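Journal club side-thread
Mid-discussion, someone asked how the predicted structure for our own chain would compare to the paper's figures. Pasting it here so we can look after the session.
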Amino acid sequence: MVEFILQGFAAFIGTAAFSVLFKVPGRHCAVCGLVGWAGWIIYTVCLPFMSLAIASFLAAAVIALLSRILAVVCKVPANVIMIPGIFPIIPGISIYNMIYDLFIGNTVQGLSGGFAVLKIIGAMVLGMVVVFSLPRSLFRKRRLAGKSGQ
């Protein structure tokens, strides 16, 4: 349980720091951190029960959904929040291992790892595409029914 909390905290801090690197306005860095934290929590909770690709799909979909919602609230483009928010679930070590295996001549293991990485990245892209294909009207702020003339 302590490890789970520490990993979530690290995901928050890492995402917020990554948002600084991408020059996200300072007032939105904490929002990016929360989105990255939520994506990491979804990923780690789903991972014991399903494959890496499905856990990555669900986490990316949650990150994209939160990005679209919080983009309306913060009045920024969704990409400002989503790009740093996706940082914790990128399969970086798998990409490194794939390239390492290819360079040392272990072609079969490198290609096998490469197909696994492509499956994970494809699932992440699909999760984002599914959420971004939802109509924009679902994410607009609703006007109060009592106000007239607007």
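Post-session note: The chain has a mean pLDDT of 91.
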